[in-house]
Amino acid sequence: MNSAATTHVRVVFELEQDENGWPPAGSERLWAVPAGPGLVRLDNIPFFARGVACGDVVRVEADAEGTVWAKEVVEFSGNCTIRVVPDRDGDLEGDLNTVLNLFAPLGVEGEGLERFGLVALNIPPAADLAGAKRLLVEGQDGWWDYEEGCVTEVWRVLDPG
Questions:
Q1: pTM for this structure?
Q2: Angstrom distance (rounded) from CA 160 to CA 137
Q3: Beta strands 9-14; 68-75: pairing state
Q4: Is it the case that residue 61 has pLDDT exceeding 90?
């Protein structure tokens, strides 16, 4: 057994689906590391859970079966979670790796979920925030659609120029 398996826990976030059945599941499991009694620090980027980002500290509770459930964020990391869906009929032809490669020079990391044609981006405070926001906005013109899953006040008020 590797050390990651012994130090990480899976935390379940309940998801609220809209009238179209999105997101495509009732819950999402995220990796986290213990951060104190009843607390974990998220260690991967959420694809569907809203209001949380990688690095956030979350209060959790385990049920009788041992499932660890997320209850509330108690400390925000300052990271933003942005979800990007590249247009399959657009210039990028739905290529998730192209999306990731476009954002990498700006200090943004992410991962793709091919099954849903979705990229989850983690934008840390040290990234080129203006550049990332500008690229997101400009990319709506034929490259992708995006949604802000969890953003900071700095991101909200940022003028992408």
A1: 0.91
A2: 8
A3: parallel
A4: yes
